[in-house]
Write a structure and sequence with these properties.
alpha/beta; Aspartate Aminotransferase, domain 1; Aspartate Aminotransferase, domain 2; 2 domains; seven-stranded mixed β-sheet; 14 helices; globular; binds pyridoxal-5'-phosphate
Length: 388
């Protein structure tokens, strides 16, 4: 049943970034695209049906966020993360990256130091730089194939910083921060008066361990902004529907002011309906999706080992993105890109786009069917045997 649900859907004709922007991204579209972070899999039926029903009504005017929208978020946060969220803490938005930008301007000024942890989803550093703040990079330690936080460096940088942009779970390393790590982060940030902006967009797709929202720590109540969305989880990123959870009134008002200044405060009717439906009825589908994704991850790992390819898959504790350490291939980064794009004809994300420490890495999106993933693995093996 899960297998049938997670066949890849032909996305041609739907203006899909992953396919229709491939040429711009890789210089060719003659490749299997496994990059931008959405999935090739259909959204849950409940979401599809809700959207069809809404679309059947022939009017698509301005739309308010109804009670059901807030309740769906509150229930989801309680059910999944054991976190009681007050309704007034929730501020709807149209994307997590825009919210990061609003938070930066709301809580810091030019030249302030803002901490991030690379290798990292590029818009974090990009947003800090665009707003003319300084990037303080608490580079993650990569030891024995696993990513860890360098707490000594974290504390040193926290002393000089106004904000910390946390990615939890972390993209691209796939790390799920555990309770002890979060406690340490939180204590240091409290001590040095650093506000935490926690991007938790990948929190639902998590394997084995539990996601702890920074917002669920009582001591963070007046010091954090949590950003989340159903977009990654239910494959509805194109509906541009996200939210911030900001329990502290003053922080919330400052954030709202920035969002209002941007002029974008309306939601879109499809995104609102999709969020309500996904969070209210999509939990079973999510559990099945996670089984499918976990099995894709182990398929990649098994394939790499079986064929003794010199690529190490960093443990994926969360997300549908695998972070592949290709350094043992012994190629320069440029040669590595050439190998993936021109020889293997695979469109993965360039590790270096996640920061200097991403050199020698590639990010593989496994949010697809088993068939496509197996095709990708075969291409990789074939190119490795033929070209290297
Ligand atoms: C960590 C992280 N944050 C934010 C986003 C994008 O969020 P949005 O489309 O809501 O701006 C992504 C997309 O890949 C992501 O991985």
């Amino acid at each position: 049943m899960a297998k049938m649900m997670f066949e890849a859907i032909n996305r041609q004709g739907t203006y899909t970034t992953k396919y229709d922007d491939a040429k711009k991204k890789f210089g060719t579209d003659d490749l299997l695209p496994l990059w931008v972070a959405d999935m090739d899999l259909a959204s849950p039926l409940c979401v599809q049906e809700t959207i069809r029903k809404r679309a059947a009504h022939p009017l698509y005017g301005y739309t308010v966020y109804p009670d059901a929208y807030y309740e769906a978020i509150q229930n989801w946060m309680m059910k999944r993360f054991d976190w009681t969220v007050d309704r007034e803490s929730i501020v709807p938005c149209y994307g997590v990256v825009p919210s990061i930008n609003f938070a930066i301007t709301a809580y810091s000024k030019e030249d302030d130091g803002i901490m991030i942890q690379t290798p990292l989803y590029p818009p974090f550093a990009g947003s800090v730089k665009h707003k003319k703040r300084r990037v303080f990079d608490n580079t993650l330690l990569y030891e024995n194939g696993k990513y860890q936080i360098d707490f000594e460096d974290f504390e040193a940088k926290a002393k000089e910083s106004t904000l910390f942009l946390l990615c939890s779970p972390h993209n691209p390393s796939g790390r799920t921060w555990n309770k002890e790590e979060l406690e340490k982060i939180i204590d240091i940030c409290i001590e040095h008066d650093v506000i935490i902006i926690s991007d938790e967009i990948h929190a639902d797709v998590i394997y084995e361990k539990m996601h702890h929202s920074v917002g669920s720590f009582e001591k963070m109540k007046h010091r954090c902004v949590i950003l989340n969305a159903p977009s990654k989880t239910f494959n509805i990123a194109g509906l541009n529907t996200s939210f911030a959870i900001i329990p502290d009134k003053k922080l919330r008002e400052a954030y709202r002011l920035e969002q209002n200044k941007s002029g974008i405060t309306n939601g879109n009717p499809f995104g609102i309906e999709a969020l309500i439906s996904a969070y209210s009825e999509g939990e079973m589908w999510l559990e099945q999706l996670k089984v499918h994704l976990a099995s894709n991850i182990s398929c990649v790992k098994t394939f790499l080992l079986k064929h003794q390819l010199p690529i190490d898959a960093v443990p994926t504790e969360a997300t549908f993105l695998m972070w592949l350490d290709c350094k043992k291939m012994g190629l320069s980064h440029e040669a590595l890109l050439h190998f993936f794009i021109d020889d293997a004809k695979l469109g993965l994300n360039d590790g270096k786009s996640f920061g200097k420490t991403g050199e020698g890495f590639m990010r593989l999106n496994i949010g697809t069917s088993r068939k496509i993933l197996e095709e990708a693995m075969e291409r990789l093996l074939h190119a490795y045997r033929e070209k290297l």
